Amino acid sequence: MKMEESAAEKESTGAAIRYGDDDQKASLEAKEMSVVDDMINGGDLSSSSTDILVKPMEGINGSGPPPFLTKTFEMVEDPETDLIVSWSIHRNSFIGFKKIDSDRWEFANEGFQGGKKHLLKNIKRKNRYNSSNINTELEAEIGILKKNQSELKMEIVKLKQKNDESNDKLEAEIGILKKNQSELKMEIVKLKQKNDESNDKLSVFEDRIRFVERRQQQMLNFLVKLVKFPILFQQLMKKKQVEKKELDEGEFSRKKRRLLETQVTKSLLELMGTDQTVTKSLNEPMETDRRGTKNLPEPIGRVTKNLPGPM
């Protein structure tokens, strides 16, 4: 166990107070002052003092131990100070100053052993803020930070690649969806056109059905009138014979045929003047369906064209 210089200096000054009485303190201080005075003035030294102070320090030409360690070692070596501080039984530790055991004031260091003064040079002061240690620690920290930075960069690159791949997939899917949407829009437009055409055809069929129903009703009303007025049937038969004759005679009889049709129509109107339905259907204006086809009721002459002649 290595000793710190500052703690040892404080303990050395207060060791006499903690572990000795006033007489021992006074005798120790007197002895130290005497030795220092003899060294300065060149006076005679006692045998014990000469052995301690006059003997040259080992390794004085090199980097020897600090004076504090030397003085402490000599103090522990001095048998006169055993009441204050002394070696242990095995002389590898001393008792006093600072304890290494909770129950005993004993201190030890590998370079501080009894009779082995040359080991003092191995005791070095601890330097908590050694620049080399600090640099080493900083370099280690910097190495760790660089390693972490490299790992983070690699992780960022991987995430970026994954993000790019995801974006490419999303763009491809969006492109497919847009294409499908365009096709669906075109299909909807075609379906609307077909629906409009179907609606137009349906409207035309409805108009034709209504027209056929109206014609049927007109025919039915006309037949009812023929049954009520037999003379009208005779006139119609006579008209048919005239038409056949005109067809045989040619162009000359066409004007006469038209005149006859007009007369027959007037007579029919006179006979059926009370039936407003037939009169209205005979005189209703021309109708036009959605296709522009003109539909109008046929004249009575054309309606009766296909009637059988008199038996």
Task: Give a topology summary.
Blueprint: H1 5-19, H2 22-41, H3 47-54, H4 67-77, E1 86-87, E2 93-95, E3 106-108, H5 131-228, H6 230-249, H7 254-271, H8 276-283, E4 287-288, E5 294-295, H9 300-303
Antiparallel strand pairs: 1-2, 2-3, 4-5
Helix pairs in contact: 5-6, 6-7
Overview of this structure, please?
InterPro entries: HSF_DNA-bd (IPR000232), WH_DNA-bd_sf (IPR036390). Residues 1-21, 282-311 are annotated as: Disordered. This is HSF-type DNA-binding domain-containing protein. Residues 1-12 have a biased composition (Basic and acidic residues). One of its GO terms (molecular function) is RNA polymerase II cis-regulatory region sequence-specific DNA binding. The radius of gyration is 72 Å and the shape is rod-shaped. The protein is built from 9 helices and 5 strands; from the N terminus they run ααααβββααααββα. β1 (86-87) and β2 form a beta hairpin. The termini are far apart. It has 2 domains: 5-122, Arc Repressor Mutant, subunit A; 187-303, no CATH class. The longest helix has 98 residues, at 131-228. With 311 residues, the chain is mainly alpha-helical. α5 (131-228) crosses α6 and α6 (230-249) runs antiparallel to α7 (254-271). It has helices spanning 5-19, 22-41, 47-54, 67-77, 131-228, 230-249, 254-271, 276-283, 300-303; strands spanning 86-87, 93-95, 106-108, 287-288, 294-295. A 3-stranded antiparallel β-sheet has the order 1-2-3, with helices on one face. Strands 4-5 form a two-stranded antiparallel ribbon.
